[in-house]
């Protein structure tokens, strides 16, 4: 489990190598504002080897956030993260490990008949109630998330997962009303509160793709205020002193800046962007798609933005733009190859944009 003392010791070891605000607060500890993402890549042994080497290098270079999910690369990403944690010359307690549950994962490779495999492995065995399954592949019911959390602990070879996300809950909106989704989240949050009390997770949150960056009338919209309210209710139901709901994950980059520009969340003083709502609510924000899945590394930032952002390469500028947004704790970057680690980590040697400069981009 990540601890305060170990993360501060990690910062002491690497802090002088980076620019201001590279390390940021997470609870009582600190984490790097550049993190390792493990979504992209083929489910092959060769990709596993490259990921393992890249994660070890990142952990030994000043990055102490690793993000994965049980469905990424058919559970291979979680397993490689566990292997890298064991192989790296880095204190496990200095590393924030995050994973997610929601999408039904295959096991090692994609089966020839995915629908039949899911039915036989999950529905027929009782792990998933067919009525809870949306689009044939997504479930956030408490018993299912319980099962997935256990599998993730085994894949990662950990006693405690530091941050566990309910993965893309907006997927459920294809078949259910928003109120029904909030009700389901409350039930699942209650189970996660219980698992936190038992020490299996330290904190939890929601990882989204569309829900927290679209207007309120969008079919994929979810209210962060309502999600937080349901988490507080869940903590009371679990008889915990306070909620363990502490983080959200969402896409953010220069071409997907909706979490800053769209004021669709209802704050205490009116409509706010998700980033400002999360900041006011004391939530940590982890941004995904910092490079727009590689597009910004190839094309670069728009010229008028690039001239404001420090960095020696397109990728570094894109990463620095993402981690300049208000309230962002860490920006995740896919590091499936050791060739990319040095460049991505070096983004942190450049300072992010100040608040005024960041705001000016959108004026």
UniProtKB/TrEMBL annotation:
UniProt cross-references to SUPFAM superfamilies, sorted A to Z: NAD(P)-linked oxidoreductase
Domain of life: Archaea
GO molecular function: oxidoreductase activity
Limits of the NADP-dependent oxidoreductase domain: 35-211
Pfam families: Aldo_ket_red
Gene Ontology CC: one annotated term: cytosol
PANTHER family: GH17980P-RELATED
Protein name: Aldo/keto reductase
